[in-house]
Every structure is written in structure tokens, then in C-alpha cells.
Amino acid sequence: MRSSSYQSKPSSPSYSSSPLPPPRSNTNPFSQNVNNSNSSSSSNNNNNNSGNRPGAAGCATGGSNLFGHGGLAVFSWGRGEDGQLGIGDTSDQDSPTYVDALRGVGVAQITCGSGHTVVLTTEGEVYTWGRGDDGRLGHGDNGWKYVPRIAQSLTGHVVTQVTCGSYHTAAVTNNGDLYTWGGGMYGKLGHGNESGHSIPKRVEGLSGLPVSQIACGSRHTAVITTSGALYTWGDKENGV
Q1: Are the C-beta atoms of residues 89 and 80 closer than 8 Å to each other?
Q2: Closest Cα partner for 215 from 173, 161, 177, 175?
Q3: What count of other Cβ atoms lies within 10 Å of the Cβ of residue 89?
């Protein structure tokens, strides 16, 4: 069985979080559309096969916009040893903790992999953080990030959906293009080989086939196109 490369954990910087901003009473027009999108957070977390307690992240889903930026706020808790909680260090959190680095950023969707976390904003931008092995964060390196960092290589694209497996990440743009990055083992990135990529790369095999939905497992990826066709790739063991 092939395994993902492992990078020793770097020392974490010091970080002091600021208090939550005061609540506001105006209605959040986005909340009704994104409450169900958070299911990707829990489903992808099930792919964590490390045997340790997984980290968790979630969105505030109240009917009011507490943070005044047109989207939701992110709270995280659980295991933090990979920096996947986004609070600036690798400490564990026993209760939901506000991710202060996303203050002022409207969040539309959040998804969790094995040691990393991905957020889609209401502006169609992508932020990632946590464990950077295999380039799964999409920043052009394998470094670990302890606070959310925007995926610069996707600048200019309007992303409408994000998801991740244990060691790879995927994003769909508003024109139906699919981008994948991270560990390429088992061919799960869809680029015709097992090479990994540390920045998002368009899946050319789906050219002319706009994607409407995307899901990632630990070793495979599946999409549904706008025509309703299902495409899958990756590890063929156990019929996946």
C-alpha cells in the first residue's frame, strides 16, 4: 500500500486572538443557501485514518449576520496538532473557538480533510490552512499554515464549490471547470498520473464537461456534470 509522504511538524508561531466583534441585528441573506453546504466538513473528516482525534471546523449558522460581512463566521475545535483549527498554533480546543484570522471575510462553505481545512468565501475565493504535506493547501509548497491563507493561484477565478479528501483538495469554478491539487497517489487528482501538485491544476480530462458537484474520498474523486453524468477516478480497490 502506498502512503502519503510525511513532513515533520515545524515549530508554531505565537498567536494571540482578539475578542469577538459585537453582534449586529441585520439579516444574513446568505445563511439560507449555505447551511446545508457544511455537510462536507463532517463527511470529509471521516476520511481521517490517522487513528487520532480529528480536528473539526464549523460555521455559525444563525439567521442573523453577527459579523456584518454578508456571510458566516468560522469556529473550530478538536485536535489542533496540524494547525488545522486555524487559530495560529497547534493547540487542541475543547470548545468552539472563533477563527479570528477570517474576521471580515464572509464564509460560504467549509470542508475538512486529514489535517487541513478549506473555506470558500462569498466572493468565490478559497482559503486553506493546516498540514501542507503533498501540497494539499495549494500554496505552491509543502509548508504548514497555522492561520487561513488565500490560494493566490485561483485569483481571477470565481469558485463555487470546494471539497477535500484526506490528502487532496478540489474546487469547481463558476464555468464548471474542476481544479485539483495535493497528493496524487492512486491517480485521484485526475491528471492521468500519480504526480502531486502544490498549486491548483485544471482537470483537462473534463474539458467541455462542466462540473456541477464534486466529492472527494481518501483515495478517489467523483463528480457530477451539468448533464447529470457521473465520473469517478482514483483507487479501484473495493469497487470505489
Answers
A1: yes
A2: 161
A3: 16
The tens-digit pLDDT sequence of the chain (240 residues) is 343 433 444 444 333 333 444 433 333 333 333 333 333 433 333 333 334 445 656 544 333 344 555 788 999 999 999 999 999 999 999 999 999 999 999 999 999 999 999 999 999 999 999 999 999 999 999 999 999 999 999 999 999 999 999 999 999 999 999 999 999 999 999 999 999 999 999 999 999 999 999 999 999 999 999 999 999 999 988 666
Place of cell 462536507: 40
Enter the pTM of the model: 0.75
* Strand stretches in the chain, DSSP E: 55-59, 74-78, 93-98, 107-112, 116-121, 126-130, 145-150, 159-164, 168-173, 178-182, 197-202, 211-216, 220-225, 230-234
What is the rounded distance in angstroms from the CA atom of residue 40 to the CA atom of residue 162? 9
Q: Residues 146-150: contacts with CB within 8 Å, 24+ apart?
A: 146/12, 146/13, 146/15, 146/83, 146/86, 146/87, 146/88, 146/89, 146/90, 147/15, 147/86, 147/87, 147/88, 147/99, 147/101, 148/86, 148/99, 148/101, 148/102, 148/105, 148/117, 148/119, 150/125, 150/126
How far is CA 104 from each of CA 20, 32, 67, 134, 231, rounded to the nearest angstrom?
Answer: 11, 20, 7, 30, 37
Helix (H) or strand (E) holding 207: none
Give every CB contact of residue 174 below 8 A, 6+ residues apart in sequence: 124, 157, 158, 159, 160
